């Protein structure tokens, strides 16, 4: 339970939620995962906030190892459940949340919320601008395997190691360093 309570103290800071909203979010996440775990109520989280030993925020001195990715978010209005219940078809509104996470501390160090049509690689610059301190490594998936992404990383953090697997649609063309479309 203390792990859930600990996350219950981090979630309000990340998503700007009240403790009642955090309780509902944790309950929804556990339901989606199919886990039958007890969720602390908002008053318990409030009482335990002072007793939990949360790690202090990182200073900007040590280089961070960034894990970078994005996810889609469906926006629901107040009448969304009525539309789903009665079968009304309507275009849903989507946004994309681009995150940069500190691999060692497990903290989100930068985020950008965009429209659904923004590409992942195009949001590397705005995320890197929000990272305080040096970056030791940049790890991402194949969507970031582009020359402009590599150039953007090197412009901000020259010493950063870039760890991006080659896209599955690319094949080697003689040289192992350079990939060309297949």
TrEMBL record:
Transmembrane segments: none
Matches recorded under InterPro entries: Tn903_transposase (IPR053172), Tnp_DDE_dom (IPR025668)
Protein name: Transposase
Organism in which the protein naturally occurs: Muricoccus vinaceus
Residue ranges constituting the Transposase DDE domain according to the UniProt record: 11-77
A Pfam family that the UniProt record links to this protein: DDE_Tnp_1_5
Superkingdom as given in the UniProt entry: Bacteria
